[in-house]
Write a structure and sequence with these properties.
With about 700 residues, the protein is of the alpha+beta class.
């Protein structure tokens, strides 16, 4: 009998043949001889006896009456590059997801996936199987392994791999040393943008981006793609990335992101990724300073797009926003109203299969990634693959990602600025007043409203991604930003005389720019960072609400970002299982707080308790369901988004011209309160215990 967790064996060591042992040599997949590729079929009997003798677990794979037709993936080399931004690759992924979803039971899925694994591009296979596992009823509680464990080449300095292999091959497991991944290895401090490398190249940040696109694929079966408010979530998650990036820039005395609005001027930002694809041992190409975008005509994957296409699509979207409607393929007007407009726009800009008119509005977001990703070799003259912007696992490493998405965010903001400001009735909450808001570190005797960040050194096991490497664990250590644990404390008075529910919304935003100049609210509004959203019950009279930093609705815990893998890695104890359950979608907990500076960076802390009658989404919720802890960016699995308000409320719309400061915004609304806090950075490295 095949268990759903047996599928995880197919994800390990993605470039090795399926018949090689998994789980540190303890698990063997019994591959039918008919499933072996032409290279191994003549020696099938020898392989089975050679690699299965020491196995503790054998996973049976039965033959299937007819093997699947995989011609849809013919153009994607087994050891080549795979990208969700390339239309032919996306089509192949959708076909493979459909194939996996269409299998009647787990046992048949195991058989079909085993047959496919050694015949398809490794990243294509991993992506499609992971999406299928997450969306099948009989496998959706199986936990997808951390992608850094499976494809470490997409996250860490390749210089560590020879050291890891040497350590694994020459030293017994109990004596192996941890190999250090050097921080900030892509440029020297002569490059100003290198001050942001800790954010752009953070493993957890890039894993978040990959996993969000895994949970919200743009192509595939409609039941997989069509999720509640999917287009709006595309806008909001990426908009928050830009807000967070700008807050980090101000902390490092860098100007805000300059949006990539002129596609004809040189791009001053260079990027040299210093990464090697393990599948074909080719490096990710670099982009030199002042490179120019060019028309792309790639015969290797049939990607053809002109810079003028991007400009035309962008201008048509601008026109639609200004007119207040888009046209579907039949010429019908779809209003861009305040309820559904942002959702429709999100589908159009990303150009998922939900877009109402791809012919008219094109594929601006995805094709923009391609034009930038092929800037070094737009016509395949030099036989080079795409740069880091061509892959969701690596795109956020490049400074140009934030300029491109800044432009994309500008489109959405243009629509939002067309909407009327929120009214007092929409912002207010009768009988509820927030009397104070503050934050404090959880350790004793620390000053109020002062938060602390520092560097932390952590470890991750990369053995499952070292194809043809050693058995057992091989650990690498990496340095990342971390904050001291803290708690928000909000005092709320309920004068209604009866218990009342509300939605607590906590945000922070930088008070000043990189020069220390105070930000006007009109601009500051775009930099507000969501820290937490929670439903609260207010008893009559005064209520004290305490929300710990690790309770945030935005983040997932460190343990879920970098978790163990393997068919037997899932714990049995209910309490541990609740911790372990994991979609993987969510902002990394260690990056919840902006870095700040040694002398301290001032932020506005904002809290409001909004009217639950206007917030509530009526649906059945299981409080013990997996994956419900990072709903701000990722929603709830198989449910509606749990907040009826617009994502980004109350800062997503313009305000009246008389509102010049945050205090002007807060003053008329008793259910809001603001305070000034400071984030101080301590330039020391502390090992994770």
């Amino acid at each position: 009998m095949t268990e759903p967790t047996d599928l995880l064996a197919l994800l390990q060591r993605p470039l090795e043949p399926t018949f090689l042992p998994k789980d540190d040599g303890k698990t063997v997949i019994d591959v039918p001889e008919e499933f072996l590729t032409d290279r191994y079929r003549p020696i099938g009997a020898e392989l089975q006896s050679r690699f299965t003798s020491d196995a503790e677990q054998r996973i049976p794979v039965r033959n299937v009456p007819s093997t699947p037709d995989l011609s849809f993936a013919n153009g994607i080399a087994k050891r080549g590059a795979f990208s969700l931004f390339i239309p032919t690759h996306r089509d192949a992924a959708a076909a493979l997801i459909n194939l996996f979803l269409g299998q009647p039971d787990v046992q048949t899925l195991m058989s079909v996936a085993t047959y496919c694994r050694d015949r398809l591009n490794a990243v294509l296979f991993q992506y499609a199987l992971a999406v299928a596992i997450q969306h099948r009823e009989d496998t959706k509680n199986v936990n997808i392994p951390s992608i850094v464990s499976l494809f470490p080449d997409q996250f860490v300095d390749p210089a560590v791999f020879p050291k890891l292999r040497e350590e694994g091959a020459a030293v017994q497991q109990e004596n192996r040393m941890v190999i250090d991944i050097p921080p900030a290895y892509t440029a020297s401090d002569r490059e100003d943008e290198q001050r942001m490398a800790y954010f752009r190249e953070d493993i957890g940040v890039n894993m978040h981006h990959w996993h969000w696109h895994l949970v919200y694929p743009g192509d595939g079966p409609l039941e997989v793609v069509r999720k509640d408010r999917r287009g709006e979530l595309f806008f909001y998650m990426h908009s928050q990335l830009i807000a967070r990036y700008n807050a980090e820039r101000f902390s490092n005395r860098l100007k805000k992101v300059r949006h990539l609005t002129n596609l004809r001027e040189p791009i001053p930002e260079a990027y040299f990724p210093k990464m090697v694809r393990s599948s074909n041992s080719r490096s990710y190409p670099a982009r030199s300073a002042n490179a120019m975008l060019q028309d792309v005509d790639r015969v290797d994957n049939n990607t053809t797009v002109a810079v003028s296409d991007l400009e035309r699509w962008r201008d048509r979207i601008h026109e639609a926003i200004d007119q207040g409607f888009v046209l579907d393929t039949d010429g019908n007007r779809m209003p861009l109203d305040e309820e559904r407009g942002i959702d429709v726009l999100g589908d159009i800009v990303e150009a998922s299969i939900l877009t109402p008119n791809r012919t008219l509005y094109g594929s601006l977001h995805n094709m923009g990634h391609n034009v930038i990703a092929y800037i070094h070799d737009p016509d395949y003259r030099y036989l080079e693959d795409y740069g880091v912007m061509g892959d969701v696992t690596t795109a956020m490493r490049d400074p140009i990602f934030y300029r491109w998405h800044g432009m994309i965010d500008g489109l959405f903001r243009r629509h939002k600025d067309m909407l009327t400001p929120y009214t007092g009735a929409q912002l207010g909450n009768d009988g509820v007043s927030v009397t104070s808001v503050g934050v404090q570190l959880t350790r004793p005797n620390t000053p109020a409203n002062v938060l602390l960040t520092f560097w932390q050194r952590s470890q991750v096991d990369l053995a499952a991604g070292l194809d043809f490497g050693p058995q057992g664990n091989v650990f690498a250590s990496f340095t990342h930003l971390q904050h001291a644990p803290f708690s928000f404390r909000v005092e709320v008075n309920n004068a209604s005389g009866a218990p009342k529910q509300g939605t607590l919304r906590i945000w922070i935003a930088p008070k000043v720019d990189e020069r220390g100049t105070p930000l006007a609210f009109r601009e500051q509004r775009q930099y507000f960072i969501e820290m937490d959203t929670a439903t609260v019950t207010l008893n009559p009279g005064m209520n004290t609400i305490v929300r710990r930093s690790d309770d945030s609705s935005v983040t997932i815990p460190y343990e879920r970002t970098f978790r163990a893998i393997g068919t037997k890695a899932q714990p049995a104890a209910p309490a541990q299982l609740a911790q372990f359950r994991f979609c993987g979608c969510g902002w990394p907990q260690h990056m919840l707080l902006p870095k700040g500076s040694p002398e301290g960076v001032q932020f506005d802390l904002f809290a409001m308790v909004s009217d639950y009658a206007q917030d509530q989404v009526v649906q059945d919720l299981d409080p013990n369901a997996p994956c419900n802890d990072a709903h701000s960016f990722c929603g709830l699995r198989d449910k509606k988004y749990p907040d009826r308000r617009a994502m980004g409320f109350p800062f997503d719309r313009r305000t009246a011209d008389t509102v010049k400061t945050l205090n002007d915004f807060v003053a008329p609304n008793g259910n809001m309160k603001a305070a000034t806090i400071q984030v101080k950075f301590n330039n020391t490295v502390i090992a994770r215990t």
